Amino acid sequence: MSDAEQTPSKTGAPTGPRPEEIRFFGTTWLDHSGGYALRRLGLAVGALAAAVAACFVLRFAYEGLQVADVGGLVNTLVVVMFAVCSAIAFAKTWEGFVRRPADPGREESLRSLKAIGFIGALLAYAARCFVEAPGEKLRRAEYETALAQYEKRRSTRTGNPAGRKKPKRK
Question: pTM for the whole thing?
């Protein structure tokens, strides 16, 4: 974390790295305060409800294809497309909660695929909410690493460097 991301103290001097906020949780994931458990439960239930509603919408779309009598091949392709896109969206969403993407450009190119498979993304979000705030483990590890680095930097800066004895040359 950079110096700009450090928390200012009462005197205005930085006191250390600041935790990254998570959508819908802010920084309450750090100490599990402010209704954290209820918020997690509410978001999990909400994501599941949205996934169920999305399934009904897709069912109506599928019935529309049957009424239009477009043929069995098109119906099968639509079902397979949504299933594959949902599986990929689930996997990529879950992976995003565990680690940062190695190639942001590739993630950007998968955005439309994830939008088609939005049911998978909603299910991944709901499943992660039952365990922790989505991305909490990743952000906690990054925050603890940043804290350790900050403390290491602070502890090595003790004393006046000008007052140190210089080693004698031979």
Answer: 0.78
